[in-house]
Design brief:
- There is one protein chain.
- This protein is an alpha/beta fold and about 400 residues long.
- The strands form four sheets. Strands 3-2-1-4-6-5 form a six-stranded mixed β-sheet, sandwiched between helices.
- Strand 8 and strand 9 form a beta hairpin.
- Helix 5 packs across helix 11 and helix 10 packs across helix 11.
- The radius of gyration is 22 Å and the shape is globular.
Length: about 400
Amino acid sequence: MTIDLGSTNIAIFLLDLFTGETLDARGVTNPQVMYGADIISRVQYIIEDKSDKYELRDKVVDTINKTIKEMCQQMKISPYDILEATIVGNTVMHHIFLGLPLEQLVTAPFVCVTTEPWEIKARDLRINIYQGGYVYFPSLIGGFIGSDHTAMILASRLYQKKKICLGIDIGTNTEITLKTNEGLYACSCASGPAFEGGSIEYGMRAGPGAIHRVKINPKTFIPSYQTIDRSPPVGLCGSGIIDAVSEMVKTGILNSRGRLKKGIKGVTESPEGKGEFLLVPRKNTADGLPITITQKDISQVQLAKGAIQTGISILLHQAKVKTDMIQEILLAGAFGNYLSPQSAINIGMLPPNKKVINIGNAAGKGGQELLLSKKKRKLAEKISRQVKYIELSVYPHFSQTFAHSLKFPIL
């Protein structure tokens, strides 16, 4: 079994150790979101509530065990037939799961307790697989870049690239690696939950009724859209939010500072005096409520895209690489797999590039490779030590770079 322990979602894969075949795969919501959509909120909760440091870990273990039971029932096997497991995740997920100290992750320079790989008996973690079996936690890179990014670099073969390229795993916590002839440079960005529908007025996870594609007529400002499963619209998932904001930038509904322009069809003032753009009128939605993009939603997208744009800019500066020298961009993660690259470029989240490749859940794929091969485990350790980690918050001119990155390009 391989588990990709994300801040918002958990992906679980059941594999045949003899053939390497993936027998089943499930995705579930990380129950820790009730303690905060962002990882820092969860760290602060654990630090302040000293009564049970394993409370958040236990929530995740219960969810994993429930999912294991369902998968095994489907396969007509026992959970105790699962002999080995790997778990990949960001630094906070890793430290919470292992019960490691967290205080140093909320103060500069934001260091992790260890970057070394761990092997722990399943019974000691209360995971319901073969109790004598081991759970392997791969090497971390440092700071807020965890073993999920190590697995992504491994699976994408980013470390082998002979060209200058970016590998970006987009999520609540976005990790970015720049590969140059001089080596690997990496950073972590607090992009927040906006790309997964969180903190957005009508945001939702990708599912039936979620708008995932948006176009706006530049002459009439009338939107058109596509929903998942072609169901009546209920809200917007991450790719739909990025599409919508991109189209609003292209058609001039938004200015470079992200402010809605008054007097344009569809732009209205809410009863509270806050601006919003009507995407779907109430008569066309599943629940009879209009779906709008609010000024607050746009600000959330600006913060998220600004964080990623800042990370890329600082890595390029550190490596002395110009934007037009990037030959390829790899987008990983569930959100990255459905994102329209051009929409991300339009809002300035990604640098202009003709070769943007969606590679899916590379962290999960890397975790599976580490489950099946001890040679790959040694390689992953080597990769993690080679990466030059850049801590953005203490980087010179970080604040100025971030402030500049909040602006939308003039298209």
